[in-house]
């Protein structure tokens, strides 16, 4: 694809987003690394280019626009608001050197807390419009269902917080779930430690910033946890049932109604799911055939925490567009002030490739 | 000429010379002991290049040498998608060292990665920063912890004397190479269960053969036959 063709395609997509009421905004290419590291952790270093400014310290070439756009919005105090942007983003491609390191993203972000279902549907339908008749398949998910199920578990807040923290790391989530569910034996070493009346006898001198008091506190937490009943098999089955969902949206909805009988705590999240389907239907989306996967969106870089979706090339399965709701991100960047938000990006280069093949 | 890169000094060099010698290929330093020039007997067409072990992965990937001996840890750390850039020909059975994660012995509550992850979460909440792990193996450690789903840590660079950083409070834990664990214990550290990131040993690698001449290919084949790998 030529640069000119990609630019022309980006302009065409921008025009669709502007016609949907979005105001064009810009963001600096170099972003302070600290904010991104704080949000995404060490993993981002493996994916974004880090550089150094003598005055400002560590900087990153923007891996996406979301963070600067959210920051800009949080300072503007405008609400509701919708924005669009277009420009290059930069990602290291250590694991697959054939992928592009610099590519254009055209984005659409909606900040509107009035009617989240309508905002979700709006972003999805607008992206679908912008993709026009490209041969792509849609994928959808809803992290909000999983969060609601975790919050609804009959167990300690500490366990819920630990599970919530690892929703985006499926492997550790499963380890925790197995442990809290009593499905794995407690290691002998751990039992001995908890039974030991003087665990610090052979601990040597205290070194480093993590104090003995902190170690003691965690031992207390471990003892409290050991004394607690395991999460019931029924409740774990609910979580696993949600993660295993993989059907068209109407089938998923009826499955969710069944699951909510076993765990009433997810009813509100199921209600939101249903309202979203209605809103999408009203926007002309064919929800009857819309695929849904319970674990979709759990491994993406962004921490989407509600509706998540993507569009993929039919032949090569490449992500032409991805998006979702990120309410928690706005809360972190707004220092406590939240601004419910949903957005998506389209890659014009991939869209052109998908159309050509 | 087929260029063979070998570590330029120390035990790694001596052991490499021995390994080749046992297989009928004599490698030796030519000229004075301080010179980094070498000679090869027992086969024609092979040139010995003495290099720092740390530079051998890059030189192999760049095509400046055709074969090289270095630690398998260095290749994995320095070359992204290493197995698309170089090929492993033989594990040489020496220079063994494990890349592990170690924490203070006083952390009696931390025995596994699971514990490290939970301790990191609590540490971040209390101290307002991520738990720092000092290492020079950034790629290996980051990929390992990502695959294991450990969060709330950050890597800080430490190019030497890594065992001392916890005492100096510039990091809370370390990820480093150890062969016996003695230095770790002397510095009040213990190895985490399940924290073995890579078991390294001296390994004979080859670069990509794309640009090799027919003569180089022939010599390569002959050398492999001699070495029986």
UniProtKB/TrEMBL annotation, chain A:
Q: Does the keyword Glycosyltransferase apply?
A: yes
* Subunit architecture: Homodimer.
Please identify the protein, giving its name as recorded.
Histidine--tRNA ligase
Single GO biological process annotation from the record: histidyl-tRNA aminoacylation
Mind listing the UniProt keywords for this protein, alphabetically? Glycosyltransferase, Transferase
Instruction: Keyword check for Transferase, yes or no.
Output: yes
Q: Which Gene3D superfamilies match?
A: Bira Bifunctional Protein, Domain 2
* Matching PROSITE patterns: AA_TRNA_LIGASE_II
From TrEMBL, chain B:
Query: What is its pathway?
Result: Amino-acid biosynthesis; L-histidine biosynthesis; L-histidine from 5-phospho-alpha-D-ribose 1-diphosphate: step 1/9
Q: Name one GO molecular function term.
A: ATP phosphoribosyltransferase activity
One of the Pfam families matching this protein, by short name: HisG
Which Enzyme Commission numbers does its entry carry? 2.4.2.17
Gene3D superfamilies xref list: Periplasmic binding protein-like II
Q: Plastid: is it a keyword of this entry?
A: no
Domain of life of the native organism:
Bacteria
This enzyme catalyses: 1-(5-phospho-beta-D-ribosyl)-ATP + diphosphate = 5-phospho-alpha-D-ribose 1-diphosphate + ATP
What Gene Ontology terms describe where this protein resides (cellular component)? Answer: cytoplasm
Which leading EC class covers this enzyme?
transferase
Q: Give the record's keywords alphabetically.
A: Amino-acid biosynthesis, Glycosyltransferase, Histidine biosynthesis, Transferase
Cite the ATP phosphoribosyltransferase catalytic domain residue spans from the record: 53-224
Asked if the keyword ATP-binding belongs to this entry, the reply reads no
Please give the InterPro entries that the UniProt record associates with this protein: ATP_PRibTrfase_cat, ATP_PRibTrfase_HisG
One GO term (biological process): L-histidine biosynthetic process
Q: What is this protein for, i.e. what is its function?
A: Catalyzes the condensation of ATP and 5-phosphoribose 1-diphosphate to form N'-(5'-phosphoribosyl)-ATP (PR-ATP). Has a crucial role in the pathway because the rate of histidine biosynthesis seems to be controlled primarily by regulation of HisG enzymatic activity.
NCBIfam families from the UniProt entry: hisG
User: Under which name does UniProt file this protein?
Assistant: ATP phosphoribosyltransferase
Tell me which species this is from: Yoonia ponticola
């Amino acid at each position: 694809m030529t640069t000119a063709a990609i630019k022309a395609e980006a302009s065409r997509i921008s025009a669709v987003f502007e016609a949907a009421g979005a105001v064009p905004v810009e963001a600096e290419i170099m972003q302070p690394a600290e904010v991104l590291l704080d949000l995404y952790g060490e993993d981002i270093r493996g994916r974004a280019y880090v550089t150094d400014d003598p005055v400002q310290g560590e900087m990153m070439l923007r891996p996406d626009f979301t963070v600067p756009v959210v920051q800009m919005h949080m300072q503007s105090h405008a609400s509701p608001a919708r924005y669009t942007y277009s420009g290059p983003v930069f990602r290291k491609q250590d694991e697959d050197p054939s992928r592009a390191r610099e590519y254009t993203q055209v984005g659409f972000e909606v900040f509107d807390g009035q009617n989240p279902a309508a905002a979700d549907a709006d972003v999805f339908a607008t992206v679908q419009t912008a993709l026009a008749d490209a041969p792509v398949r849609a994928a959808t998910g809803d992290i909000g269902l999983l969060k609601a199920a975790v919050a609804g578990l009959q167990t300690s807040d500490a366990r819920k917080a630990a599970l919530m923290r690892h929703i985006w790391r499926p492997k550790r989530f499963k380890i925790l779930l197995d442990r809290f569910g009593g499905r794995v034996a407690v290691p002998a070493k751990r039992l001995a430690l908890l039974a030991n009346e003087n665990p610090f006898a052979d601990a040597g001198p205290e070194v480093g910033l993590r104090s003995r008091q902190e170690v003691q506190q965690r031992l207390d937490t471990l003892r409290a946890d050991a004394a607690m009943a395991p999460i019931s098999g029924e409740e774990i089955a609910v979580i696993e049932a949600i993660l295993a969902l993989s059907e068209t949206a109407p089938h998923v909805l009826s499955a969710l109604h069944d699951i909510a009988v076993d765990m009433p705590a997810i009813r509100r999240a199921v209600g939101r799911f249903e309202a979203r389907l209605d809103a999408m239907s009203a926007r002309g989306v064919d929800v009857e055939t819309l695929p849904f996967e319970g674990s979709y969106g759990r491994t993406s870089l962004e921490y989407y925490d509600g509706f998540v979706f993507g569009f993929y090339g039919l032949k090569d399965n490449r992500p032409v567009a991805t998006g979702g709701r990120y309410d928690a991100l706005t809360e972190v960047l707004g220092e406590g002030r939240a601004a419910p938000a949903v957005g998506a990006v389209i890659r014009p280069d991939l869209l052109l490739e998908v159309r050509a093949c | 000429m087929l260029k063979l890169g070998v570590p330029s000094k120390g035990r790694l060099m001596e052991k490499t010379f021995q390994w080749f010698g046992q297989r009928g290929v004599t490698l030796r330093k030519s000229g004075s002991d301080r010179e980094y020039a070498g000679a090869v007997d027992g086969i024609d067409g092979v040139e010995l290049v003495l290099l720092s072990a740390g530079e051998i992965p890059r030189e192999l990937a760049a095509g400046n040498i055709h074969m090289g001996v270095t630690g398998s840890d260095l290749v994995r750390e320095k070359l992204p998608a290493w197995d698309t850039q170089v090929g492993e020909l033989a594990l040489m059975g020496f220079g063994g060292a494990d890349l592990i994660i170690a924490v203070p012995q006083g952390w009696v509550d931390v025995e596994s990665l699971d514990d490290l992850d939970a301790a990191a979460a609590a540490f971040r909440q209390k101290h307002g920063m991520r738990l720092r792990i000092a290492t020079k193996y950034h790629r290996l450690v980051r990929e390992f912890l990502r695959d294991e789903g450990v969060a709330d840590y950050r890597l800080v660079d430490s190019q030497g004397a890594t065992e001392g950083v916890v005492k100096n409070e510039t990091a809370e834990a370390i990820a480093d190479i150890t062969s016996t664990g003695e230095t770790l214990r002397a510095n009040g550290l213990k190895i985490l269960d399940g924290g073995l990131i890579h078991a390294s040993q001296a390994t004979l690698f080859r670069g990509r053969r794309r640009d090799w001449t027919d003569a180089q290919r022939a010599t390569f084949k002959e050398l492999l036959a001699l070495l029986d790998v």
